[in-house]
Amino acid sequence: MRAAGRRRAELRREKRQLDGAQLRRAVLSAAALSSFLTSFMGASVVISLPAIGRDFDLNAVLLGWVATAYLLAAGMFLVPFGRFADIHGRKRVFTVGIAINTLASIALAGSTSPAMMIALRFVQGIGAAMIFGTSMAMLISVYPADERGKVLGISVTAVYLGLSLGPLVGGFLTHHLGWRSVFLSHVPLAAAVLYLILRRLKGEWAEAKGERFDLAGAIIYMIAVALFMNGLARLPSTPGIAMTAAGLAGLAVFAAWELRTPDPLLDIGLFRRNTVFAFSNLAALINYSATFAVGFLLSLYLQYIGKLTAQSAGLVLLWQPVVQALFSPFAGRLSDRIQPRIVTSIGMGLTVAGLLLLGFVGWTTSLTYVVACLVLLGLSFALFSSPNTNAVMSSVERHHYGLAAAILGSMRLTGQLLSMAIAMLIFSLYGLDRAQITPASYPVLLATVRMAFLIFAGLCLAGVFASLARGKLGRKAWRAVEG
Questions:
Q1: Do 115 and 172 sit in the same domain of this protein?
Q2: pTM of the entire structure?
Q3: Which of 393, 388, 380, 404 lies closest to 461, judged by CA?
Q4: How many CB atoms lie within 10 A of CB 226?
Q5: What is the pLDDT of residue 223?
Q6: Positions of the chain with pLDDT lower than 70, given as ranges
Q7: Are 65 and 116 in contact (CB under 8 A)?
Q8: What pLDDT is attached to residue 478?
Q9: Considering the domain boundaries, does residue 192 fall inside one?
């Protein structure tokens, strides 16, 4: 009888382990597919913007809003939805986000006016915020601490595969089937994610269940972020400066409110008492601020100075995301064995080197030199991205996973906007914002591109110190977080 009882207990334990392994694989598949979907969607839509502009006769400002509306909505809603998911269920919010993205993509394919397209892109950004604030949190929730870096590396690889394939597939579809087919191409991927969620993901993750959602704080935060991000996009104009300042003032009001309310949307104490969390997010902000505009600057350099076609320039630029996709799983696994701050700091240091090398491009620089710089940057981004995410997510308690993922996503979006704002400010100082770029202005363009790369290298050097200053996250801390 005792032997039979022990056998039944062993069978139940084996079944739980099998069910747990199947659940982890399903969550990893859903997270990786959603990461690929959102990055592929962004990259493929950008390549179709000229065709959209021709169809709707859009000026540069309105065409820019087709891209900006998505980023604006994602930035506004990321933190509120991250906290909402911690309270009401991450799987539920993630599922609704995928559904919103799917329906918005179908509706975008049938857009009949610029206003309709911009409004739907805003809605799509809301769906993206629901995905960004939950997919990473669910992944961390089901995997043990010593496997987090590995699975985060796989998720980051999916992101950069999407960024790599997006322009190629988007360009092909736009050329042969029209820009509406680009939006429809997202639907099968989204349907696959929905299938995984509804059929394979059992249970729910809501460690902050029962806590109050700070609606007033969410409203203050969204207004402040909308002003700040709009202002960044308009710099260095006077309205841009005014809106950026108003946004910063709004964020100060938000911080004051959060310190007084008993159930804050964002626990400010996370930044004050958690050095790893604070400096890891700061490092992410600096890294994206110093690197996001690199593709934009190199695209101008390769096409105007290097005299490449848009297609050829795009193929050259592919080296960076492809290398990052190849090395991200390795970097993630490395951060399971070595302190994440060491791996990320090495990555930031290599980024400084890559940006400095790009600061010396000239009229006769070979493509081999540019490709080598992009390979170095791809390796450096891989060493930084997934280990830094590992550090952020491993530094907080389980009931803060959704919020932590949302804050890290906000750092990424803000950094991307800051990077473009810095590039546009440099262009303005060199007088390239007042006229079309012509062969006569190529010497000024080259000087501007060089200066931008050197400034970004200096900014990233500061990021190395922020990365090192985060402190040590030991195995005991990981175990405590997991428990």
A1: yes
A2: 0.76
A3: 380
A4: 18
A5: 92
A6: 1-20, 59-61, 63-64, 310-311, 432-437, 470-483
A7: no
A8: 42
A9: yes
Distance (Å) of CA 98 to CA 7, 82, 124, 187: 43, 15, 9, 10
For residue 84, is it within any domain?
yes
- Looking at residue 137, what is its pLDDT? 77
Would you state the pLDDT for residue 60? 55
| CATH code of the domain in which 304 resides | 1.20.1250.20
Q: How does DSSP assign 142-185, residue by residue?
A: HS-GGGHHHHHHHHHHHHHHHHHHHHHHHHHHHHHH-THHHHHT
The sign of the dihedral angle between the CA atoms of 406, 344, 28, 292 is positive
Establish if 445 belongs to a structural domain.
yes
Q: Do both 258 and 326 map to the same domain?
A: no
pLDDT of residue 473: 56
- Dihedral of CA 429/458/293/135: which sign? negative
Res 482: pLDDT: 40
- Answer yes or no: do 343 and 414 share one domain: yes
- The amino acid that residue 326 corresponds to is L
Whether residues 388 and 473 share a domain: the answer is yes
Residue 362 to residue 397: CA distance in whole angstroms? 50
Structure tokens at 241: 């400066």
Q: By the 8 A CB rule, do 197 and 23 touch?
A: no
- Return the structure tokens found at 216: 């007033």
- What is the end-to-end Cα distance of the chain in Å, rounded? 35
Sign of CA dihedral 331, 335, 336, 337: positive
User: What is the tally of structural domains in the chain?
Assistant: 3
| The pLDDT value given to residue 462 | 87
Residues 218, 205 share a domain: no
SS (H, E, C) 86-145: HHHCHHHHHHHHHHHHHHHHHHHHCCCCHHHHHHHHHHHHHHHHHHHCCHHHHHHHHCCH
If asked whether residues 71 and 27 sit together in one domain, one would say yes
User: Does residue 173 sit within a domain?
Assistant: yes
Domain encompassing residue 218: 214-264
Q: How far apart are CA 254 and CA 134, in angstroms?
A: 23
**Residue corresponding to tokens 């062969």:** 439
Q: Answer whether the bond into residue 236 is a cis peptide, omega within 30°.
A: yes
Q: What pLDDT score does 360 carry?
A: 93
Can you read off the two tokens belonging to residue 463? Answer: 């990021």
Domain boundary among 264, 282, 301: 264
Q: What is the pLDDT of residue 434?
A: 60
Q: Do 72 and 185 share a structural domain?
A: yes
**Side-chain-facing half-sphere of 83: CA atoms under 13 Å:** 18
Q: In terms of domains, do 473 and 336 share one?
A: yes
pLDDT at 448: 87
